[in-house]
Specification:
alpha/beta, Rossmann fold, UDP-galactose 4-epimerase, domain 1, 2 domains, 6-stranded parallel beta sheet, binds (3R)-3-hydroxy-L-norvaline
């Protein structure tokens, strides 16, 4: 992995992934792309191009122009937004993925794209969700993610493309506010704790979901992509997680820093239903065994770091 093109570079994962990759591989070796531009370090800190991932010709042109050897395909509509517009979600999430895989096949690229715990459904075992288990998601996002996992496996077995991916849990970060996800409450709550001292959660108390702090997610991507392929029994759907939490637990941890903080609940039927269809706690043993996955942050250390970093200036 020497020269990397990243799609969705201005998104929640992409914007921090670019910073990490430029540190690790050199700014000029990381080409950030997104469908829009922004006044951001992602745009100013190294090569940046406007790219609509549903435009195959434009994608291939950039792959050739920058002579990349790796693509990290991060552009996607997240779960809640995908439920608002399932047809657009299929077009963007699957159209973009097929174009990325075809570019990887034609240009012999290593290829990463994330799946999600959203790839599981109500029939999936909720506790200790195995690496290999039933996947009958009931959301368009979940259908996209299962289809994506199978498609990436196909490109590996049929065409020999070096595809790799993880099933991310909810990701928590202080750099770029997330948009359109079901797990966004676990990010918003920190912003509101500092801004107003209270938060009304759209996910009900007692709703457990897997979560991970962004630094651990970014390290997982690099570790998987640098892993010895001979040791990988799986390819495109490694379960990774750091913690299984619900809103009351997050509130209690915040209260250790802001004793006056108050949480209340107003469940959003759509996002509550999505959350209820997902596992409570997945098993990440395959990732640990096959490529040494390890999360550094737990709820306590993540909360301390989030609040400390956000105090220095809440991104608008
Ligand atoms: C979402 N943050 O909520 C994403 C993620 C597991 C959740 O896929 O849609």
């Amino acid at each position: 992995m020497k020269r990397i093109l990243v799609t969705g570079a201005l998104g929640q994962i992409g914007s921090e992934l670019i910073t990490k990759l430029r540190k690790e591989y050199g700014a000029d070796n990381v080409i950030a792309t997104d469908i829009r531009t922004a006044d951001s370090e992602v745009v100013h800190g190294g090569p940046f191009e406007i790219l609509d991932v549903t435009d195959a010709a434009q994608m291939n042109e950039l792959v050739s122009k920058y002579k990349v050897d790796t693509m990290m395909h991060m552009a996607a509509l997240l779960s809640a937004r995908a439920e608002e517009n399932p047809q657009l979600a299929w077009h963007l999430n699957m159209g973009g993925l097929v174009n990325g895989l075809e570019a990887a096949r034609e240009h012999h690229l290593q290829f990463f794209t994330p799946s999600s715990i959203g790839a599981f459904g109500p029939d999936t075992p909720k506790h200790g969700t195995p690496q290999d288990t039933i996947q009958r998601p009931t959301t368009m996002y979940g259908v996209n993610k299962v289809s994506g996992e199978l498609l990436c496996d196909y490109y590996f077995t049929r065409f020999g493309v070096d595809t790799r991916g993880v099933r991310f849990p909810g990701l928590i970060s202080y750099v770029t506010p997330p948009g359109g996800g079901t797990t966004d409450y676990a990010v918003e709550i920190y912003y509101e704790a500092l801004k107003t001292g209270k938060y009304t959660s759209y996910i009900d108390k007692g709703t457990y979901m897997d979560m991970m702090y962004m630094p651990d997610a970014l390290q997982a991507i690099v570790d998987l992509m640098e892993a010895d392929p001979a040791k990988l029994k799986h390819r495109n759907a490694f379960n990774v997680t750091a913690m299984s939490i619900e809103p009351e637990m997050v509130a209690a941890e915040i209260k250790k820093h802001i004793p006056s903080f108050e949480i209340s609940y107003q469940p959003d039927p759509v996002r509550q239903a999505i959350a209820d269809s997902w596992p409570d706690a997945i098993d990440a043993s395959a990732s640990k065994a096959e490529w040494g996955f390890k999360a550094e942050y737990d709820l306590a250390t993540m909360t301390a770091d989030m609040l400390q970093k956000l105090k220095t200036g809440i991104p608008q």
